[in-house]
Sequence to fold (179 residues):
Amino acid sequence: MQAQVSYREWLKQDYGTLIDALKLEELQKHFLRSRWLDQVLWMEGRADSARNRYYALRMITIIGGVIVPALVSLKLSDIGGSVIYGLTFAISLLVAISAAVEEFFHYGERWRHYRRIVELMKIEGWQFFQMSGPYRSYSTHADAYPVFATAVEEIIQRDVDLYITRVVPEKEEKKEKPG
Fold:
């Protein structure tokens, strides 16, 4: 039985095959792999990681938030009551920690941010590969390459600017607020 290839490995292979087929100089193909494809794969990984953390923390918060009131409503005495009391306390603590960690790290926001940027990078790549969109007026990939390289760098620059102006300052503002 053949081992299942991860989505990122599949992307790397698929895009690598496309890049190899392009009639570009080796240096330009190297750029495509080192800058565009590397960023696509890196952002895919970051998006997946942030999504998984977001879902895990949200599920703990949601499920724990449903279980705690049910446990509180139980009127047990003796050993059973002590166990339920301890369990309720532990789950309540887990829910609070989960909600606080998500609030601090904003995994949901990060997931959406990385997903948006990686999809923009993929769209730009596909338009370049297919000579569509802004590349349709060029007769070869070599002619369109400078426009593609510029577009990729602009996407990466917007990503950096957005991350620095929205994600990082938001956390710093929350720390600095007196309260």
User: Anything to note?
Assistant: Residues 7-171 form one domain. The CA atoms of residues 109 and 167 lie 8 Å apart. The chain is about 85% helix and 0% strand. The longest helix spans residues 26-73.
